[in-house]
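Task: encode each sequence below as structure tokens.

Item 1
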Amino acid sequence: MGITVKHRHDLSDQVEDGQDNYVYLRVQNRGTVIGSCTATVYFTIPGMLPNPAGWEKIGQVNIPDLEPGEFRVIGPIIWSDAQIPRTGHFCLISILDSPSDPAPDLTAIQTSADFRKMVRDKNNVAWKNITIVDVIPGGTSSFSFYMEGPSGKYHQADLQVDLTNFAPRADVLVRMVKRLADTATLNNMNVTHESKLYSTLTHLGKMGTLEDMDFKSNEETKVTIYYTVPEKTPDGAYPIRATLLVDGEQVGSYTEMINISHFVFVGNRKTKEVHNKTCAWMNMMSPYNRKPFGDLPQAHRHGYDNCAHCIGESKR
């Protein structure tokens, strides 16, 4: 479908807990004859990608009479509130099945590499990473992902961190093992702190890259991205996209979508109390501990208790 369409983030809304959500699929028949198929959508946590038996099925939909070259939006498939994870990172997987182009054999997946190879090589499999994150303007948060490489020696890897559509003037740091950062050519990034094992790099905005990192056989290493959003950032959804290429071929991609909003209620991650945003205790709360909520029921579902000072009816 082309990279400019595939990587547009304004084609969907963010997943929200506390209600049913709706999944739509963009499907195209790239063959030369008319065909029908069935689409099945699953979700799972990243660690369960090599174990399809642990995937949780969201739903299934029939797609009839797709003409050659036809592009069609299918759905909705209802993703019930009871199924939706309340927070964190998870993955959506969609698999198409038809008599002329059968679904791949999921029992053949034994490792993360097997799963990525299936997504890369099969035209009837799609994989999307999703993270539910709400941030208050002026707040700080972080996320992590793993860079994984193939077996064999002498692999060269590039990590791209794209802030093109992220909040303007945000502070973004990238932390990774020093061994890889030392072998990389940096573009639009500067090393600002080093320890014996790790390097922390300041991202200078737009597209930042670490090129020609020396990957070991079956490399698997963690990268953490920290960000602070300016106080006057307008409400909206802002993506950070990280892409890994090994030997010139894209092998992984991770997108963090940050919802910026001037929420009415703010939770303290440390004390597990929720406050009105005008509460006097807000001035004593670390930006990193601030967790926004649209309403009190949402905060209660996440295990937060009312502040006795500004809201009342505390259960403590």
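Item 2
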Amino acid sequence: LKYSVQFHAEAIIPLVIGGRLMGIINVGCRKDGLGFDYRVLEIFDLMSVQFAIAINNANLYEGLARQNIKLRELDDLRRQILANVTHELKTPLNSIIGLSEIILEGADGKLSPEQEEHIKMIYSSGKRLLDTVNTLLDLSKLEANRLALDVKRVSIKKMLDEIETKLPKKDEVSIEIRVKEDAPPVYGDERWISKVFGNLLGNAIKYTPKGVVYVDCDRMGDMIKIGVHDTGIGIDKNTQKAIFAGFRQGSSGVGREHEGTGLGLAISKKIVELHGGRMWLNSEPGKGSHFFFTLPLKPDSIPFAEIPTHLDSNKDSNKGASGSNMYS
């Protein structure tokens, strides 16, 4: 023992595990004054093993709990720094973009072709960096659970028709919206659902050198399953395991072909889960990718969302041409 201690006991049982003393059990004398026979001593041996394991497990659990607290504190600090930095970047970026637009419009006089090209580069680079900053802000809100959904009835067909006009165009890639006019409306936040479509369709176009990108949907009980498909380069099995983790792309490294933060899928998955749905994919290298996600057909399917009262009260009266019971 580390210290000299006087014990008054008939038996002292050491609690040892892995060659390390975890403690001792001090057993007093029997009332009849007799010693302990071999059967009792065997029980003491068994007890010592079990007690030592229990104490060791308790110590391990306590250590893990302390580490988890530290990790959570570091993660909170990381999110706070991320939110603060991105907020600070937005103001100067908006100034750079705004001033570039004004100069391009000729507010400071006519530009030479070379000057115009340089200002356009500043403008496009500023826009791309602002998109990255906004993406990081979205991620910090989602991770901190500070996102409040504005739940409404949303027409998937109408939303996709609007998004299609804003998508980047490729000569050898066709975009098809295979969603029927009578597809049932979903309930959710229109802005964030639009962001999910934008991320998935943008990725599909980006990673499809030639072919087709299309969207379809099908009903699954109280949810609607939406698929975003492409005939592009596909994703290998190892990358698929981490594709939703964030900062991951189908191609990575210094020499990667495509730009981007790799956060679009991570954000999209969190948004879908916030609506009570899920997201998954099927893909094979060289044969394209198929991303699927589900959204609720009823407002009460969204967890923790503040549903406006008029949605529930009008739920039965809304069944009709646009109601979910008309779509099968």
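Check on item 2: The radius of gyration is 31 Å. DSSP finds seven helices and nine strands in the chain.
End of task.
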